[in-house]
Structures are given as structure tokens and as C-alpha cells.
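fold-stage: in
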Amino acid sequence: MVDFDLAMLYGVRNKRLNEQVKRNTKRFPDDFMFQLTQEEWHILRSQILSAKTPEDQAIALLRSQFATTKDISKIRTLPYAFTRNGIGMLSSVLGSDTAVAMNIRIMRAFTASQQIMESNAILFKRVFHLEQHQQETDDKINAILAKMDDNSPKLLPEQIFATGCVWDAWAYVSDLVRSAKQRIVLIDNFVDDRVLSLLDKRADNVEAIIHTRYYESFQTDLKKHNEQYREILFVQLPHKSHDRFLIIDDDLYLLGASVKDMGIGLCAITKMQTTPETILELLK
């Protein structure tokens, strides 16, 4: 306990308490009393001055009234800290009945706290083991999740679908759509309402554009779709485009068949090294 806290408890000025201690320095060796370092005092003072609750503020007020004639923030001399033995010795140097009575109460509190620690040692040990067990469990769960992630299917840069694998092809393209963070651009001569449903799987704030040929039936579907769901933009292909392409953010995929027909016959999807902008520029 620091000197101004003890002075508050004993009902004396902090200056008087330290004067009595200095007059009896032989009774206070290093294991009874020591002076706080500048860093320790800075941390302690910050805690006192940042008191938030009414209880903490009341304690801070008492300190300012009893522990020193100045505000805590204006204390310039580094405080002294007293160990249990040092506190026990204080009553002999202060001498007053109040100091002796308060010292007895403090020492009894020390004894009671020690008894509480000893009586609850088993409980504290169990809590410690539970925390260790919880940490081990968390580590095992994290390892399992990492293993699951390693073994989970990945979007391969090249995928071939045998004839009849319609669902596999649809699921693969759906995963590509879901992976988009910024934009999806589909370049395909022939699209229908199934493609609109596919693009609706994209995340929020992801732009979707279809470059395709003009068909009255598709325009009707697109208009009705955009009236109810997030807008999908249409761009008229300026000329016939033989190959189909899918742009996901900054990645370009070559599609071996129209999206609506993927998997009906043998086809492939290949991630290209060419930039999406190269293909978009060629469409102009």
C-alpha cells in the first residue's frame, strides 16, 4: 500500500506519516518499504485521475483531503510503498490509538484474504485447469476447421465437364459468380432467363453486365427482372462473337459453351492469362 493511502486510513497527513518513518528508518528495511519508480507512479496516478465510477471518485476525493494538502495530480515527490511487514511496523512509529486500531484492522484483513486464498486454492486450481482445457479444445477446433478448409473444393483454373454433367457445370459457374467482389461480365451470343437467375447469386454491390445479341424475348425477360431485382445491364454485341467469356473482377474465363448449355455436351472452362480489358476492347 502506498503512503498516501495509509495516511488516509490512519487519519493523518501524508507528510507526518513519512516524517515518522524517516525518523525510524532502521525499522523499515527494503522488504518493509520502498520508493516507487517514476514509471510506477505515472501508472498509479493515471489510474487515480481517470476514476469513472462514483466510488472511485469518492476514494480520489478522500485521498486529496487526507493524504495530502495538494491534489493528487500535483504530487511531485515519488510516493513510498509499504509491504505487509512495513504496515505492521507503522503502528509502532505513529503511536496514536487511531493508528493502532486501524493497523489491527488492516492486519486482520491481510490474514482473512490469505485464508480465503488458501481455502479456495483447489477452486482456483480447477479454474486454471478448465481454462487450459478450453484452450486445448479451441486449438483442436481451429485445427479441424483449417483441415476442412484445406480439403474443401477449390475453384480450379481449368475444369472439364463430361456430357450430361449439367449440374456440375451449373454449380461451378454459380461458385464463380458468388466469388465476385466487384463485377461480373458475361459475353455470350445466346442467353435466356436462366442466366438472369444465375447472376442473381452474386453478392451485394457487385455489378452484372451481359454482352449478347438482341432478342425480343430476352429483352422482355430482362425488363421484368430489373423491375423486381437488382439491375443487370445489357450491352448489344456489335458483331457476332464465336467464343464465350466470363469476367469475374480481374479474372477472365473462356467458356466452351453458352452458360445456359454448360454440361449438356463435353465442354471446358479455362482461366486465361489475358486481361479482361483486352477482350472488352476487342468488342468495340
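fold-stage: in (second)
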Amino acid sequence: MDLASVPKLADLNVESRRVLMRVDFNVPLADGAIRDDTRIRAALPTIEHILGRGGRLVLMSHLGRPKGRPVPEYGLEPVAVRLAELLGVGEVHLTDSCVGDGARRVSLDLRDGQVALLENLRFHPGETANDEHFSRGLAALADVYVNDAFGAAHRAHASTVGVAAFLREKAAGLLLEKEVAAIGRLLGEVERPYVAVLGGAKVSDKIGIIENLLRRVDVLVIGGAMANTFIAAAGGEVGGSLVERDKLPLARDLTARAEGQGVRLLLPVDAVVAAAVDSEETATVDARAVPDGRSAFDIGPESARLFGEVISRAGTVLWNGPMGVFERERFAAGTLAMAGAIAASAAFSVVGGGDSVAAVRQSGKERGFDHVSTGGGASLEMLEGKVLPGIAALAS
């Protein structure tokens, strides 16, 4: 998927016009305070472009999963306050509802260079249902439409698909362009060796991406709990580690297909194990001989060294998914080692997926990556070769 047929922001006339812009402000909150404003900052280039050209900006986003009804803790007031701080403006007008007379009055009252934020889209059931009436209500707030929410582009919702049918003039935002260009590069001609590092809990979550990448990569590194399924499929003993027993035949098939296509498939050779994730006592053992009563919660140091050597020689690296339960300090070493190895390499590097992005930030190595994606599910689906409905809607 590329943006060749999608209108560009630079070609959109926004002066003195109301611009309805989908952003991804689904930020983590704790006690009503924003813990990480990365997604807000990522949208600033597009926001500032529109405001700097005299646009009257109406932003819309979801936050959390309120399931179609107002839930106070998912209100966007903290986001409006933080956005005003980042923009250096006195106020970002927050509407009481995302549609209706109140929202329409706010949008009509905007002047050139002003910005409003609609209350949480998912307070209304019409958002996730891509309801036509709700889509028309959103479209009535503006003259043109911009989608800059890559993190929601894989969802066929009212704000990403439905509204685009009712606003003739539309364009991709700068963040959306950047995301598609970086991830699209991984699906085209790349510098080799091309190394994909995949982790996380379940093989079932990554079937599509593995199958698509097997035709493209030179080395496939598999860590995290999903590696246990591959190790067990090859006859290894994994103790009490998480294994998808129903996916053992698939793991064997994928292993055989990798060999048949000349793809080097690397699995952990050692693992950090414990009786439970909360246990203080840990040990490093052969990843293929985990004792009964113990489970693997991280790759071991030899695996990290082996994976790091491969990464150091790569021309292109994709990373999606942690190597272990990195939220616990005693099981974070493998994941942090991957962040360090990729950041230190000369390869074109992309990291996607919420957990691995969080690990990169935890490592302090974010600047060492060429692209840190803001969209977990969207980046996965794009890497699987799927067409993202939010992007397709801009081209129609």
C-alpha cells in the first residue's frame, strides 16, 4: 500500500476553512494525568501546518474503550489541556459531545488559526459501527477532512472511513504519510541482509506477518513467549512456559517453509526462567531444556548476543514484539538488548507494536531508530499486506 493515489496535505486549501482532522490521541492515563504524550506530539506537524495556513481546526480522537457510552475517566479534557500547552495557545476548545448542536456551534465559532477538540468519539456507538447518520454528523462540522491517525487507519470506523464519503476534499496528514512511507519501505526493495525480529506472547497474533515476511526477509528472529511454541514444535522441553499447543503443526510448517525459502530462522538458545513471573529467584537455562515447574520469561544472554550479532550485520531491521516480560526488571534484559543492538546498527530500522515501542522508550534508544511507529495494529496489518480502510477511504 502506498499513498500515490491519496491527496496530499500540501495540495489542500485550508485557509479560513474548517478542517476536520482525525488524530490518534489514545494516550495512557494514570489518575487523570497523561503518562506519555508521544502520540500528541506526533500529530503536531500536521496541526501546525493547518493552523499556520489559517485553517480552523476541529480535531477528533478516541481514548480507551468506553464501549459507546460516556465514561468520565476516558474524557479528553487532559488531552485538550496538554495540546494547548504544546501549541502555546491559551485554550483548545473541548466540546461536550462529538456531534450535535454543541459541537456544531463550537466549529462555527472558530476563527482562522484556532483549534477545537471533539469529546471522545467512542462515547457514541456510531463511531465503531461506522454509522452513516453519525458520519454525516461529523462531516457537518467541517469543509474538508484530514486523516492523520495511522494508529486507527486499520479500523473501518465513522471517523476514519464513513466521514470521508461526505467530505469531497480530503488528504492524508504528515504523520500518516511518514508512517506509510517507512513501513511501505519494508515491503519493497530493501538493503540486505533483511532481519525481522518478532516477539510477543502468541504465534496466532503474528501468523499473517510471518507468512508475508517469509517471502521477503533473509533472517527471522523469534523471541518472547511465541518462541516456546516453535521450540516445543521442534521437540524441545519448555517446562511450564506458555505454549499454543494447537499451533504446534503451524510452527513446524512455518519452520519448514523458512528452510525451503532459504530464510534463516533463529530461536533462543537460552532462557531466563522462574517458578512464576512474580518470583524473585531466576535462573538461566538451555531454552530447549526448561525444567518442570519453571517457565521462560526472557531470552538469555547467549541468545541476546547471537541475535545482536545478526542485527549488527543487517541492512534493514524490523522489530515487532518484546523478547520477554520486560515490564519486570529481572526479565527486561533481552528486550533492552535488542533495543540497544538495533539502535547501534547501521541498518534502516523500524519498530512497531505498542510493547516494543514502549521498550525502546524505556531503553532510551529511540533516537537510534529510523522510524518508531505510532500504530501497533495498523503497522501489523500493513506488514501483513492488508489494505488499511482509513487510507483507502482517502483515495476514493
